[in-house]
Amino acid sequence: MKNIVIFGAPGAGKGTQSDFIVEKYGLSHISTGDLLRKEIADQTELGKRIKGIMDAGQLVSDDIVIEMIDKAIEHDNKGILFDGFPRNVAQAEVLDQLLAKHGRTLSCMIRLDVPREELIRRMLERAKVSGRSDDNEETIKHRLVEYENKTLPVAAYYAKQGKEVKINGLGDIKRISDDIAHAIEAL
Ligand code: AMP
């Protein structure tokens, strides 16, 4: 059973490539961003608490997303693609513990590398159709700073475990998917 993290800055193409991976390998897709946006759309108590944080481009607290991931692993029997999680080293450490609790290990972390200017260009382009309140120029900058300060160290965490697979996230979507497939099939 494969358990994979898809990693990259906001706008790196994680969502697009996640669709490809879950379809091809029959994994459950767990996107913490999607789960959090659903809480906001449903106007739950949690949704009300996190809306301002997400609109400011900041990370919500670890406890909230860890509980979501714990439940997701508990209910899964196919293997999981984690998208948007872990976002900091503390979350990465907890993920290892949660997987171990269920007799699983992480197969690999697929890292999509895209230059900063292209990330901004893509997110502004997406803003025209996404309806996401955090896809505006001001929030995009905050999200990139959060990524650089807190999330990027997660890559080093997995590199140390020999689990980091770097993929060039620039260019043709099909070529990127092919590179990812090669990496997964080499596991
Ligand atoms: P995303 O859809 O992955 O770009 O996430 C959108 C927003 O949801 C982020 O800017 C954070 O505010 C929040 N978020 C998503 N995943 C996490 C996570 N693992 N830890 C903390 N905050 C998160």
CATH architecture: 3-Layer(aba) Sandwich
Number of strands: 5
The Cα radius of gyration reads 16 Å
Strand adjacency order, main sheet: 2-3-1-4-5
Would you state the CATH class? Alpha Beta
Write up what this structure looks like.
The chain has 187 residues and is α/β, with parallel strands linked by helices. It has a single domain, classed as P-loop containing nucleotide triphosphate hydrolases (Rossmann fold, 3-Layer(aba) Sandwich), CATH 3.40.50.300. Helices cover 60% and strands 12% of the residues. The chain has a five-stranded parallel β-sheet with strand order 2-3-1-4-5, sandwiched between helices. The longest helix is centred in the C-terminal third of the chain and has 24 residues. The radius of gyration is 16 Å and the shape is globular. The termini are close together. It binds adenosine monophosphate (AMP). Adenosine monophosphate binds next to α2 and α3.
Sum up the structure in keywords.
5-stranded parallel β-sheet, Rossmann fold, binds adenosine monophosphate, alpha/beta, globular
Task: Write a brief caption for the model.
This protein has 187 residues and is an alpha/beta fold. Helices cover 60% and strands 12% of the residues. It has one domain: Rossmann fold (3-Layer(aba) Sandwich), CATH 3.40.50.300.
Q: How is the secondary structure organized here?
A:
Elements (H helix, E strand, L loop, with lengths): L3 E4 L6 H12 L2 E4 H10 L3 H11 L6 H14 L4 E4 L5 H13 L6 E6 L2 H15 L6 H24 L3 E5 L4 H13 L2
Bound molecules: adenosine monophosphate (AMP).
The site of adenosine monophosphate has 17 residues, from helix 2 and helix 3.
